Amino acid sequence: MKKIILIGGGGHCESVIDVIEQEGRFQIAGIIDKPNLVGKRVLGYSFIGTDSDLSKLSEKYGYALVTVGQIQTPELRKRLISLAVTAKFKFPVVVSPRAYIAKDVCIGDGTVIMHDALVNVSASVGNHCIINSKALIEHNAVIEDYCHISTAAVINGGSIVRQDSFVGSNSTTKEYIEIKGFIKAGELKK
């Protein structure tokens, strides 16, 4: 089984660990985070290094996933992704076996599709996105790079979520609209 490094060890990391374990394609080699966490554990996995160890670790493991969540801004995720790119990691797509992805959907590198999410026919999801638990991406919707579609959010048919955007939990869009930026939890976007 291929080994993977997780970059960022907070709450989102814990959720991603569960998805990776359920998917069964990767073995988690360890977690990268702040120096004070090295040697500690989360859900049975050790913190094995910091950002400065990424180049060395990519030679040994090859795969990484940024597991820092994103609220309001993707800047920390983007910085960590850049460090991992420089270290020459490969970024797999990780999909919960409890998610549904239509057969013609395109999903970009480093994206994670969480439990009970649904990505419908002819939709596309960019690189390094989070499609969180119970999110619905309807037909022909486009989610650009570095977006986080939060828990139970609904992106209706033909809508476009522009790069770096955040759509809060339980938010719903009208069909065929364009979204850019930050949408609060529960907001209806017309």
Strand tally is 22
**Helix content class:** 10-25%
Q: Are there runs of 5+ residues with pLDDT below 50, and where?
A: none
Overall 3D geometry? globular
Structure classification: alpha/beta
CATH superfamily of the largest domain: Hexapeptide repeat proteins
CATH architecture of the largest domain: 3 Solenoid
What is the average of the pLDDT values? 95
**Rg, nearest Å:** 16 Å
User: Could you give the order of strands across the largest sheet?
Assistant: 6-9-12-15-18-21
Count of runs of 4 or more consecutive helical residues? 3
For the biggest sheet, the summary is: 6 strands, parallel
CATH class of the largest domain: Mainly Beta
Q: How widely separated are the two ends?
A: 45 Å
CATH fold label of the largest domain: UDP N-Acetylglucosamine Acyltransferase, domain 1
Strand content: 25-35%
Strand/helix succession:
EHEEEHEHEEEEEEEEEEEEEEEEE
Count up the domains: 2
Q: How do the strands and helices of this protein lay out in sequence?
A:
Layout lengths: L1 E6 L3 H13 L2 E7 L8 E2 L2 E5 L4 H7 L2 E4 L8 H12 L7 E2 L4 E2 L4 E2 L4 E2 L4 E2 L4 E2 L4 E2 L4 E2 L4 E2 L4 E2 L4 E2 L4 E2 L4 E2 L4 E2 L4 E2 L2 E2 L4 E2 L1
Parallel strand pairs: 1-2, 1-5, 2-4, 6-9, 7-10, 8-11, 9-12, 10-13, 11-14, 12-15, 13-16, 14-17, 15-18, 17-20, 18-21, 19-22
Antiparallel strand pairs: 3-4
Describe the structure concisely:
This protein has helices at residues 11-23, 54-60, 75-86; strands at residues 2-7, 26-32, 41-42, 45-49, 63-66, 94-95, 100-101, 106-107, 112-113, 118-119, 124-125, 130-131, 136-137, 142-143, 148-149, 154-155, 160-161, 166-167, 172-173, 178-179, 182-183, 188-189. With 190 residues, it is an alpha/beta fold.
